[in-house]
Structure prediction request, 1043 residues.
Amino acid sequence: MLSVPCPWCGPRDETEFRYGGQAHVAYPADPAACSDAEWAGYLFMRDNPKGWFAERWFHSAGCRRWFNAVRHTVTYEFAAVYAPFTQPPGVPS
Amino acid sequence: MSQPFRRAAGGRIDRSRTLTFHFEGRAYEAHPGDTLSSALLANGVRVVARGPYTGRPRGTYGIGAEEPNAFVQVDSGPGEPMVRATQLEVYDGLVARSLAGKGSLGEEPDDSRYDKTWAHCDVLVVGAGPAGLAAAHAAGVTGARVILADERPEPGGDLLGGRAHLDGRPAMDWVTDLRARLAGLPEVRVLPRTTVTGAYDGNFLVAVQRRTEHLGPAAPAHVARQRLWHIRAGQVVLATGAHERPILFPDNDRPGVMLAAAAAGYAWRYGVLPGRRAVVAGAHDGALWAAVDLVDAGVELAAVLDARHLAGGQAHRALRDRGVVVAAGHGVVGTDADADGVLTAAWVAPVDGDGQARRIACDLLATSGGWNPAVHLYSQAGGRPRWSDDHAAFVPGDPLPAVACVGAAAGTFDLADALAEGAEAGWQAAAATHGGGGEEPLPPATDSVASAGAPAACWITARADSPPETIFVDLQRDATLRDVRRAVGAGMRASEHVKRFTTAGTAADQGRTTGVTTVGVLAGLLGLPVGAVGTTTYRPPYAPISFALLAGRDRGRLLDPERRTPMHERHEADGAVFENVGQWKRPWYYPAPGEDLDQAVLRECRAAREGVAMMDVSTLGKIDLRGPDVGEFLDRVYTNRFSTLRVGQCRYGVMCRADGMVFDDGVTARLAPDRYHMTTTTGNAAAVLDWLDEWLQTEWPDLRVSATSVTDQWAAVAVVGPGSREVLRRLAPSLDVSAEAFPFLTVRDATVAGIPARVFRISFTGELSYEINVPAWYGLALWDAVAEAGRPAGITPYGTETMHVLRAEKGFIVAGQDTDGTVTPHDAGLGWAVSTVKPFIGGRSLARPDTARNDRKRLVGLLPADPSVVLAEGAQLVVDADAPTPVPMLGHVTSSYRSAALGRSFALALVAGGLTHRGETLQAVDGGQAHPVVVTEPVFYDAEGARRDG
Prediction:
């Protein structure tokens, strides 16, 4: 069970959270202007790296706030958590 | 004579008290402190279980968690299958019997209490042997929060009953002192009888604490029998010790064959002679020391064999002092047994070549091929054990962050080294999480022992012509060398494959005794180094956990929260039959005396269509939306427009996911310029609120909107049918209920039955109807008032089944029943609710080539050719059920009922091509039977919508 460092509440058990997939995938400003391929890319295509990954979390059974996290997909280590619409702080390479 | 194998003195048992227990129907005596194994050995009972497939008799083999043979069924107390006799503490009145492979659950429900607890600590020390005790003490003196968990009844590990000395005193004196010191540290918690069974991400460990089992019938009823610990630890120190492994030889499964250190342990820890005349066979110094312990306990040593060609170590000298000469380079190549299958002799021969074998009579054959560090938790935490030639064992490989392995678990078998390692690891762990402090305690002094030489990796001693099916690799699975050879012959090379093919290592002991031995044997057959073959993966749980414990108190009525509306008690009084909708209990139907479901529903439907009926609709999801931008937000969230809704108006809305598939639907009303009241499907209320929050927080934080669940704050009663207007008029005399003043799809604040209320004129049935919402605490009063006001008109309460029939007759979908995440609004016949001018979530997806296909599954109605047939929901639709397989599937039935209004059965379905099949006859296949059905429009009743105005 991961210990997820909620930026608002502190470390809490993973079961209090909902996972939100890759971060920084913005909803297109004008979906109608997207080609079919661009729209399919937004809907279906996500990175799946082995290593550090910026992703979204929702503290659904806690403060009910969304945040972003940088987590390692092999070790599950959290390197940083940060507010939506901000860029990740320095991430280990 | 009672307990003929009990030594005259010694052992950690209380000889002042005698307990009585039953095994296989016979009464025996034991002492407090005995396990069932030690008690059976004391009474001379050698056969404890049988091989699951061979039926061969099996005896006690080990002394703890590694035991592969001695599993018993406990019949006393709540009863329990598959209990290790080596860990089962005897209590007065214990009743157990022998097993052959598997036990059975009792017929009676287990009403013992099981509970769970969550704990945080700076340092978790697993194992209270010498290294673990030193670690816990060194961490504890800093003031750090420490948990020390150990599976045995008391701390001490291998020091228990042993003959080691620390600081010049018997080691158990040191253990006793340390326990007292730990008890004086307020932040240190010692958990005996507690097995850490799993190590998960982020140093989250799960442990099973056995709290009252050892007390038998004396266990207090209010104390949980077992407790499941969820421990989040800053640092973990694994002092889990090591498991002794045997050397394999022909007929190595006979009662009387035992692990050597285990045999010595029975003599000294429990004061029991495991036999009177022993052959000891080993491949490392530990086996020789076990021989010393046995002879000092009074066991006659018929022979001591060492597979190694070594002499001159301290253990050799100790044996020579006792008149025993070690037969170097010798091993066991066979055993004899009596008529009961119990050991009577060992056949002994040189390990090299095929020298003459010699028969040596004995009733104990103590074997030890070395020690396997208990790397299970290290491995579960992500570590990869590596083979060490120096240890002739798999030891922890690369270190893990925040996890330390110490003592025998790390391959450090020397007592002095293990104590120093434990103390240092505990000290460092406390420093890393707590900050440390105080003065580092020194480990106790002890003599180091001069070794005769490194242990040998000796797996099997046998003659070239020994039958491989008599050499048991896994006793608990009856898996033999022949099985491993067959696996290799079939081309397998990976230990994981061989494990699955032979089942060796898959039993309740999970290969603790012979898992590594199997790897060694496999490596030998493949001609590979042991390290190149590698162990199988160790997965949780380390030891079996009962389902009763995992359930804890979450069973019966406490399994899941039960949500009840404020009117629940009235529904019960009215004889409602309930159904579960999510966690809600909703009235399903209200049978009159003698009615079944079908009869009750037909009556309820008629009342709603022809007279007046009422329903508790409190469970509907309700979300209060406030802020100046709610209208804009709803325009984006719903497929249709809500910003243009005037105050006091309602509108039906459909929500899609970004992929364009229907997610939820409901009626939303505008209460004020900046305030809307949204309703959702009962089962989807939480998901919709999450959905709104997600978009507001992560995409459109500029929109000034707040969303609050008010589902539980409102109770609601739907008054339905041609007579509903008259009922509402009586209840709310000050409200103008005329069709002109209170038209369809509007909302009014009113006083209803003296209660402040919000009345929606909406309809999920097609009939004239009103949904009266009041603060939840007035729910029951409202229900009673509606029932009273409707009494002259014969108002009829109805449940969810009637609601479904009425809505399906009108072709109204239920999101999640008639849709399944692959259905667009157009597929569901809701194209009329989809805006073509404004953008909304999912809108772009409706123009994707796949969603624009016209052969997509679309909503249709079905009329079975036989009007008495109610199709099964989920039944597949095909053109010709007798076509050659695979029969092309056109779709499936989503809703199916019997209609009072139509006087026949009908259904809704999703069919590829939808209404292009109108008028065609398809076949609905259910349970091998094909029912002809005609495809129709999905609206069966009042297609013009004339009835909603009453």
The helical segments of chain A are 36-44.
